[in-house]
Amino acid sequence: MIELLATRYAYLLMFVLLGIGLYMTIASQNLVKKLIGVNLFQTAIFLFFVAVAYVEVDGEPGGSPVVPATENPASSDLILASPLPHVIVLTAIVVGIALTAVGLALIVRIYSEYGTLREDTLREVRADE
Amino acid sequence: MSLVAYTLVAFILVTAVATALFRDVLSAIVVFGAYSLGMAILYTLLLAPDVAMTEAAIGAGVTTILLLLTIARTSRPSTERLFEPINVPALVIVGAFVLVLVTQLLPEMYAVGDPAAPVWSNPEVTQAYLEQTYRDTGVQNAVTAVLAAYRGFDTFGEAVVVFAAGIATLLVLKREVFA
């Protein structure tokens, strides 16, 4: 059991972070903190992709995805982390910041319209209209 | 799995829980910046320096600045209490979700770094890219090669998304906050 958790520590961390991010989006009444929760959830997914790409042979970690400058590299030089999940995560980080920016712009508008950032107060104000 | 990795995992967990529980939004934002930095170091340990640099610049840098700008434009409710009260129903639901993931999904996953994992063991995918990258593109960094050459159109699509987000932000704010 302990060994299972120790060898899969990155996935375990990812599951716990998914839970914390989800909890923030559900339980936090402040809209900004909800958005931080969404960001936390995202980074957990990034951790999953990066952990999947990681490789080690007999306990020795491989290399970063930088290949030797030869046309026909030996396969022993190519014990490197997979570059494909890294590229997906790079794209996802940039798309995530775009998402955050739009969300924060909406939050600024909501505040200028209703004068509050709390979800419960917002519900009351909108129910009165 | 070294002592450094264990320490980082503990640091990330503590900062994540602190982000969730701090009642003051400014404190939560600052702790979230520390969390992003810890995450970036963990990515470096997991052999992803490109991802780590992007996370440090965008996750710890730009996200924190955007959040702080939002706080400056809106309000930061003053409180005497340090932590938020725990929302028990939400905690039960989320706890059940995490419990199901850990008990059902975790034993089925490959160990971190296992070369038998599908991402790495399939010679048609990772090895093929690693072998061909220098021959095809003349770039040694395989991440750069995939990002700009093999998956160039994906990166173009990403730029379109960022452009659309910029337009959406300007429209939503009606330029009033920039005046």
Walk me through this protein's architecture.
The complex is a heterodimer of chains A (129) and B (179). Chain A is mainly α and 129 residues long. Chain A is 70% helix and 3% strand. Chain A has a single domain, classed as Helix Hairpins (Orthogonal Bundle), CATH 1.10.287. Chain A has five helices and two strands. In chain A, strands 1-2 form a two-stranded antiparallel ribbon. The model of chain A has no long low-confidence stretch (mean pLDDT 90). Chain B is mainly alpha-helical and 179 residues long. The longest helix of chain B has 25 residues, at 49-73. Chain B folds into two domains: 1-86, NADH-ubiquinone/plastoquinone oxidoreductase chain 6, subunit NuoJ (Four Helix Bundle (Hemerythrin (Met), subunit A), Up-down Bundle); 113-179, no CATH class. At the A-B interface, helix 1, helix 2, helix 3, strand 1 and helix 4 of A face helix 1, helix 2, helix 3, helix 4 and helix 6 of B.
